[in-house]
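JOB MANIFEST
job_type = single_chain_structure
chain_count = 1
residues = 215
[input]
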Amino acid sequence: GAGTAFVMGKDLSLRRSRREIPGMVGYVFQNPDHQIFTRRVYDEIAYGLENLNISEENIRRMVKRTLEWVGLEALQDEDPIFLGKGQRQRLAVASVLAMQPEILIVDEPTTGQDFRMINSIMKLLMELHQQQKTIIVITHDMSIVAKYCDRAAVLLGGRDVFNGSPKELFDNPEILAETHLRAPQAVRLARAMRKKKPDFPLLMNVDEWDRAYRR
């Protein structure tokens, strides 16, 4: 189909703009094994920087800083094949992060991860967000949307059927029914409480329930 796309004001129909996009937008694959291809953690992060004609000294500095960000500095000489899945996920994020994009797109970062790994990955993404990076998470995990996201966009059949806050999304039964999305358990419990007490707040996650309980 026809259409237009702009990234940070740049028209993607122009070849010049498309050449500049890799320095602005980074994409992290859902499966880190589809992205990682070197046999050394350090080399995985350095690869993209080497293609930018950055000096060796600056590459070493940028790789060191990126490894510290993702907690892999002690494993820089390790072969990625020996890392755990959560560590490989962080390495995949790091290899893109080293390019210092303004926008980071992360595809299903929590799929197949345990609770500890999910918290680790999302904590890293939140820290990047606090550093003024734009983080876009593609996910089917509504608990992630409820706990971490400021804004939600719901696509259905190629259409943007909702764009707003997670709270607005989970308080919209029509959209949930149309898109077959299921609100997180914390939200469903809050909505059940509303049946007995209409002014009960729409609590989005465990942290909000905990704060409300303490009050």
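[summary]
The first strand starts at residue 6 and ends at 7.
DSSP finds ten helices and seven strands in the chain.
exit_status = 0
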